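Cross-posting from the modeling subforum.

Setting up a comparison between two proteins and wanted a second pair of eyes on the formatting. Protein 1 (sequence, then C-alpha cells):
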Amino acid sequence: WRSDSQMENSLQRCRELGAQILGADIDDVMYGYNTGFGINLAAFGLPLKSGDEVIVADNDFPANVYPWLALRERGVVVRFAKTEKRWLTTEALKAEITSKTKVIAVSFVQFYNGVKAPLQEFSDLAKACGAYFVVDGIQGCGVEPINVRELEIDVFSAGGQKWLLSPSGIGLIAVSQRAREVIRESMFSWF
C-alpha cells in the first residue's frame, strides 16, 4: 500500500521520464490507455468542422485511421495520401494538401515494414499549410530518438507495450501548447 503522496510522486517521476523520452516539456506529457487514446483525443478534441480535411496514409495502421474516419459523420473529409512501394513520401502528402487541410496524421515508423517517416519534412508541410501535426508513435517510441518539441508535433501518442516495455493499457501522449489551447477534452477523471 502506498500513500497518496507516494503515488503522486511516482506518477510525476514517470511523467518526467516520459518527457525525456519524447523530447517534450513535462507540461505537455500525459498518460493514456494506448496509442488510439491519444489519436482519438486529437480527432475529437481539435477544432475540426464540416468541410475540414485530414490527411492520412492509404495504408496506415487502423489506430491512426479509424478515429479520423469517425469524423466523416460530422462532415470532416479524410484524404488518403497514396503510398509508393508502401512508403509514405513527402511528395504524396504534399499532393493531398488543399486550403481545407487542418490535420496531417502519420506514423513515426510503419508497422508492416519498419520504415521511419521523415517527420521533419512532414512537420514542415503541416506548418506551411497551418495544419495540426499528429503522430502515431508506437512503433518507434523508446527505440528511435524523438523530439516532439523540435519537430513541432501537436499530438504524439504511443502505447507502451512495444519499445517502452510496458504492459498493454498504458501509453504516453504529448500534446503541444498550441494544441492544448484549442483541444476540447471529452473524457475527465481524477488524474
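Protein 2 (same layout):
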Amino acid sequence: AAARKTVEAYTRVCAEAGFAPLSLESEAAAVARAVASAGDLSPLLVLHLAEDDAGLYIVSGLSPRFSSTVPLTSEAIAMEPAALAGEAQRVCSFWETHAAKEGNGGAVRRAVACGRGAANTRTLSLLSAALHLPVEPALVWRNVLSVEREAPLMPQGDSLRFAVAVGSALRAFSYA
C-alpha cells in the first residue's frame, strides 16, 4: 500500500517519459521475493542497507508484513550501527506485539542483510551483537537457482546490491 499522492506522482512521471506502467510495486516486496525462503513462514527481519537509506522489513514467506525506512546511509550505519539496531529492535518489538494479538507470526529469530552496506562483515557482526540475532548476508539468488547445486556467476558480495532487481524479475517467475 502507498499513499495516493505517491502513486499518482509515479504514474505521472512514467506517462511523461512515454511509458505506460502496468503495475507498481514496493521495494520491500521485491527484496522479500529475492531473499526470503518460499517455504519458511517464520518471521524474518530483512535489513536492506541501501546507499541512501535503510529498509527494515518483517517478511513471512515471500511477503513483507511490515516495513519501515530509516534515513541512514550505508556509510553512517558502518560507522554507528547502533542507530539502525535501535530502530530494528523497535520494528521487531512492534511486530511481535501485534502478531501475538492476531495469532500469527511470532518472534523474529534471525535477520538477513542486502544492499550496498550488507557486504561489510564488520557492520553485520555489530548489528548481530546489538540485535541479539544472527545477521547474515542474504542469498539473493535463493529463489532463482539452486545455490546448493549451482554457483552464481556473480560473487555474493556483489549480488547483495541487486536484491531489488532480482526480486522484481522474480515477480513473473516461479522456481520449482
